Structures are given as structure tokens and as C-alpha cells.
């Protein structure tokens, strides 16, 4: 991590120097045009894999305040654990995304893992840099450095590295993560050939303390235990590591030089390898073990190829037909024989081929997409996605989305091996069936969304035959995968509105959730809210922009999922409720040109509203602390 961090700093320094010298651009015409006239902000384009285009944002708004965090996105509906770089408990079930292919699993470790859909591509008239810094809980820092430049109008290179180290306030809680990305995009001058490619190298290391042992010591608020490192935790030497590397290419070629309606050949390639490792001294909380030192390591790699042909017509829309090949290998270096004589194999690998068709239409105010795919091989895999968007005007947009999926189980549900006796299994599960319907309206009066999801054969983790102590915490964690054979119905309604008057603003977001099920499998809070009252104004002849205010986050009590660090997964528990506590933050932000500074007093009400705040049954939420940070963009 330190070597990659040093590389990015050196590269960043080099590019900043090159920006001054203006020697990186060999395309003289392109360079002359940008030098003679200052490029407008809408020329600095950010392009998604699906070619949705936005622009670099240097404003300071309340939405920017919400995105100034470790994930660099709005985290409404997520509840972060104690230390920066740890996992998040999901309050809003609607944030879950579904993939019909069998995935690696260990999902609690993937919140900061950059997936293919998280990587954007750039086209910039002059070198563009983004520098993010934020202080952490204790002994460390969080830095995200990113540089993008076009060597010509057609070719872009981008490189970035996000590094974090934070010791945390509690025992055995260190976070140390690194996300490196190298990105390039290219198209020929006649637009016949387009290329998007990236390389990522990521590692997410966490010390895992298993939560606090005596909840009363935390809740009574005695001065002795305000020094959080004095609170006893379940584990003192446990740690987990998720590591992954990926090489991705998406490119297309139009057959005809002159006909814009010509057939287009498509190809997408994705090769990725990962491993998840958990190590500690054997602890009876996880049951009996085969050895005094536990070292579990799960390895995984996959190779994905998608071949397609597309036809575009100005009147009819875009048609695409494709076939793909998905090959994965999930494995260990041994087999395990259980007490009953059954054998847990050392690998689970397969090859899946599917066919599919996609139709896209965009004309005037309408934009729609229909995707249908199905397996060619023996696996039962299918996916139907349909969405349509209507833009009435700049202030009013309406969207519908439907998804019907037959999903193969994630791989850690099927096979897992461990030095702990109870954590060895090889299962056969049915496919999960998911029906999802969403409606969204973004209007000048209110932003609102509705979601209704039906789950069948839902897979989940749960503690097997738990025994609880007087605090409502399980004395032993024997967590295993299960499949629910009944139907779960999930409904959510979300509404948000930013009311502005004079120099004041009052931004409100409210989420309502309701679940119908015969057994308590899917547990969510009924209400989640975020309310921000803020003031904004210019000073010093509009050279300085100030934004300050107070944010309240709140969710109703519910039996939240608990966290199992050995599996890197959350599991259901129906014994202890958390929630019904306010989380109040005071912030003051400032902007000078493209420099933005953020200062926040987080959870400043913690000492006078009661020490009953938790992110999971025995994982406390963070105490009051003051943190600051900056975002600085460079354009030349």
C-alpha cells in the first residue's frame, strides 16, 4: 500500500508540473485551441460504462456535503461502523443490487471495493486533477488522488489511488485500505472504433474485535470507559483481508466507414481474481477448532467474455444481440472430512453460457431499454430488465423500472472451509427468484420513489441454535447459510425535498419500509430520516462561499442484522433491537474557486442523549469527534 501511495504522489506531482509546462499534449491543434480559450466546465466529461455523461462538479451544495465521506457518495440508508474503512449496516434494503451470476460473496467487505460499474471514464480538454483528504478517527488519514488527461481529443489516460489508515478508538480496530485504478478510453476520429479499459488493484484490511463484551460499561457512560480502548472486546488479534485485481476491456467497431446505421461488433472482457482471508488465535466464540491458530483463505478467479452485434436506426432505435461466456473457479488447497463422514470438497468451478438481446430507444423526451438474457448451458439462469424514462422538462423527470431475475447462489453460500469445525459446508441450494418494480419522480416540487420487491427462495446467514446472555448477545457464533422457502414482500417509499428561503435551506429525506413475511428473515427499520437545516452566503466580493448547518440522522428501532467477521457477512438475529437514537452533526464548509474545505463536529449530541447508539447489537456507533478535510480540483 505504501509503495502504491508513493507512486501516486510522484505521478500526481509530475502531472501538476506537466500542467504548468504544457508539454503532455502532442496534438498541436487541440493544445492551441485550449490555450487560446479557457475550456468551460461542461467540456470536462465523466462517462459511465453505459455512456451516460455528466460533468466535473466543483460546486459546494448540500449534496456535496452528503458525499464528503469514505465512499465519496451519498450514504443515506447506510450506517457506518465505528472506524473509517469498516463495513456498513444496510438500513435501506432497496440499495441492494442483484446479479444473476454466482458472485464471490463476503459482501460486508465489498462496500469500498470498486466494481466494474463504479469505474468512470473521462474526456478532458486540459489535464484535470482531483485531490481529496479527510482526517480519520485516530492515527492516520484518508487520501484520494486522481489525475486525468487527454494526449489528444481521442485518447485519455487516468490514474487514481485512494488510501486509508485509521487506528480507531477501540481495541483491535485498525483499518488499512488501498484502491488503485488505471483507466483509459479511446476512439478513432471517424468514431468507428471505441475502447474503454481499466486495471484495478485493491486491498481492504481490517482488524476485527468482534464488538464489546460488556454493554453496560458503554451504556452507563462512566468516565473510566470514555477512553474506549479500555472496553473489553471479544477478539484481540483477529483480522480480515479482501484483496482483488481486475483487468477490464469494453470495445466496439462499426463495419462501415460512411453508413452510421451500419452493424457494430461488440466485445467485453473481464478477468478478475480475489481472495478473502481471516486469521486469529482460536477463540471459543466460534466453537471448536482444528488448530490453535486459525487461518482461513478463500480464493476465486473468473473470466468473462461477451460477444455481440448491434444495429442502430434513427427511427427504430438500437438493437443488440449477444452471447457471453462466464467461467469461474472458487477453491481451497484441501478437502475436509466432517464428523458424519461427509466430505467438503476443495473447489467449486463452472462455466456458464448465456444468450441475450437488448433494445434501446431514445428520442425527444423518451428513453427506454429492454434486456432479456437466458442460459444456454444446464444452469437455470435468466434475467429480464426493462426501464423507461420520460423528461417533461429540465425540472420534471419520471422513470419506471422492472426486473425479473433467476439468480444462482453466491459461492460462499455453497462452499466454505475453515479451521473452525462448524464453519465447513457444501450445500445445494435452489436459485433465488427476484421480482422488482420501481417508480421514480424527480419534480420541481418533490423527489419521490416507490419500490416493491418479491423474494422467493431467499438466501441468508443465521446463527444456528443461539444461546443468549442477559444482554441479548449470543454467547457463541455458529453462523451458517439457510434458504427461506416462503415468499418475502418488501415495499418502500422514499421522498426528499430541499426547501429554500432567503439564504436558508431545509433539506429533508424520509424513507418508509414495510415487509410482509411469515418469519422474521428480512429485518429493516420502518422509518429512516435525514434532515438538514443550513445557511449559505458569499463573502469578500463573492470570492468566498460559506455553508453551515446541522444534520439530524435517525432510524426507528428494529432487530438489526449482526456482523460476522469470520465470514465477512451480516447475519439475521431476532433478539436485540437497535435504533431510536438521534445522530446530529454540525458542519461548516467553505469554497474558494475550486478549493473546498469541510469541517464537521460529528455526533455532537452523543454525551447528552444517552449511550444507547449501536450499528449492530454489540458494535457501538461512533462518539463525538471533530474532523476536517478538503477537495481541490486543478484544471490546467
Global mean pLDDT: 92
Number of helices: 5
Note the quaternary state here.
single chain
Label the structural class. mainly beta
**Through-space gap between termini:** 29 Å
Gyration radius, in Å: 26 Å
Strand portion: over 45%
Q: Count of DSSP E strands?
A: 35
Question: What about the largest sheet?
Answer: 22 strands, antiparallel, barrel
Summarize the structure.
This protein has 636 residues and is mainly β. The protein has helices at residues 2-21, 28-36, 62-66, 215-219, 411-414; strands at residues 45-47, 53-55, 78-80, 88-90, 121-123, 128-135, 141-150, 155-166, 175-187, 193-208, 238-254, 264-281, 293-313, 317-331, 336-337, 343-344, 347-363, 366-375, 382-393, 396-407, 415-416, 425-426, 432-442, 447-463, 479-501, 504-516, 527-539, 544-555, 562-564, 569-571, 583-592, 595-602, 614-616, 619-620, 625-634. The chain has five helices and 35 strands.
